[in-house]
Design brief:
GO terms for molecular function: lipid binding. By secondary structure, the chain is mainly alpha-helical. It has two domains: about 1-55; about 70-155. It has four helices and no strands.
Length: about 160
């Protein structure tokens, strides 16, 4: 946010300088007045370009936040998958030590089946997210680079 504020202030400084040149040009002779008028036009254009460049920084930031949000979501899915895998392993160990005639055996078997199903669902979600996140990152990167360099080109 600081750089955006600095760019806005710089844009305002150039706009003020352009206005000051216009005032100065009025009181000068024709040859200097023409030069000052042209210089004012250039400064005003550059001021506007800086202002627009500054305003696209929020769009760029939003693009980067969207990528980070997707990556954090994928990390969360992977953490849940690791916890579920640990749970499955723990239940399997209990079942191997347990006699089939124990009262809790069927409950543990059901818990194992439920955990295995949850793990398969998480695997599918992770695979789907991993396959789409690359294209999403590419799209967002292209978008913010286009904005960034388009804004820089406009300043030139």
């Amino acid at each position: 946010m600081k750089s955006r504020g600095r760019l806005q202030r710089l844009s305002l400084d150039f706009a003020k300088a352009a206005d000051a040149m216009r005032t100065w040009a009025i009181s000068e002779e024709d040859d200097l007045s023409d030069i000052l008028s042209s210089s004012r036009t250039l400064l005003a254009h550059f001021s506007g370009a800086l202002s627009r460049y500054s305003s696209i920084q929020n769009v760029i930031r939003d693009n980067m936040k969207a990528v980070r949000t997707r990556e954090e979501s994928l990390d969360d899915l992977q953490r849940r998958r690791r916890r579920t895998a640990a749970s499955v392993e723990s239940i399997r160990k209990k079942l191997t030590r347990m006699n089939q005639e124990t009262k809790a055996f069927s409950a543990q078997t059901d818990a194992l089946n439920t955990s295995c199903e949850e793990m398969r669902n998480l695997d599918a979600k992770i695979a789907r997210e991993q396959s789409t996140i690359v294209a999403f990152k590419r799209k967002c990167t292209k978008n913010w680079l286009t904005l960034k360099f388009g804004g820089l080109a406009e300043c030139c």
